[in-house]
Design goal:
- This protein is α/β, with parallel strands linked by helices and 332 residues long.
- It contains eleven helices and twelve strands.
- It folds into two domains: 4-128 and 265-327, 3-Layer(aba) Sandwich (D-Maltodextrin-Binding Protein, domain 2), CATH 3.40.190; 130-263, D-Maltodextrin-Binding Protein, domain 2.
- It is 33% helix and 21% strand.
- Helix 2 runs antiparallel to helix 10 and helix 9 (275-285) crosses helix 11 (319-327).
Length: 332
Amino acid sequence: MITRRAVLAGAVVAAGTRAARADDPAFFRILTGATSGIYFPIGGLIASAISGPVGDQPCRKGGPCGVAGLMGLPEVSTGSVANVAALAAGKAESAFVQSDVAYWSYTGTGIFKGQSKVETLRAIANLYTETIHLVAHKGAGIRSVRDLRGKRVSLDEAGSGTLPDARLVLAAYGLSEKDLQAEYLPFQRAADKFRDRSIDAFFRVSGWPESVIADLASTMGIELVPIAGAEAAKLVGSSVYLVANNVPAGIYQGVPEVATIGVEALWITTQAQPDDLIYKITTALWDPAARRLLDSGPAKGREIRLPSALMGVGIPLHPGAERFYKEKGLIK
């Protein structure tokens, strides 16, 4: 299994040797999220899957089955909103982005209303569903979203995908940030303050099981607050990117099955990337060798499946990816 330390070390070495020799591989960066989340380890696995280092044996002889001469490089980031900004500025080749953030940025709606549309964005694949977690202390009396009124709640930091979704959820239940003692903390900082009871609850958009939340559940106990009912149904029904979602019983210790909502985690790029390159990268992503890598990591990696590759994709596919999906019969 690829560890965070190993991926980080590899990224540092790779970054430090860019363009050192004429035969060095081309780098294809994947902006992910914080090391404490799921984006980063999944990014490491996918980076390995698409890599085909110069000089290695070919795939059919036991070598990597990625793109010859390419090195995938996962990079830590603040999250979806920051990742879109980096792609728009040409600072990376690809990124993981929540489906709602991708849609808003491409259409100039939602949190991007009044800003220039990022119409260069193109999708490679949907990866898996991310859950909107609302985590509260046991015994804090927070059993619904409306119970957050007057409570100390972290909505996550600017640049994250969690912050706009937390605002959407609050608004759906008739609340705003002014109704709370709102804080805007990076996820790990929010978890630390939750542990020392300096906040009552926090939002987190992530695939489950989220390791930090799992640790809180096992060491001090948590409540996972439902995001359900008519308000949630209306929210899902009025969007092209939100989906109903359940966290199964036992995913977090002592927590029963909880109804909530979620978004899709997309791997996106821009139209500036060559069609043939993205075709080869998409082919590598769905190669059986990549399947073995994805199955070896976080649970969400096992949900990355070809039949769901186009679910929740609200922006255009990159032509290279589209070519692959047409060949596989996913697009007629």
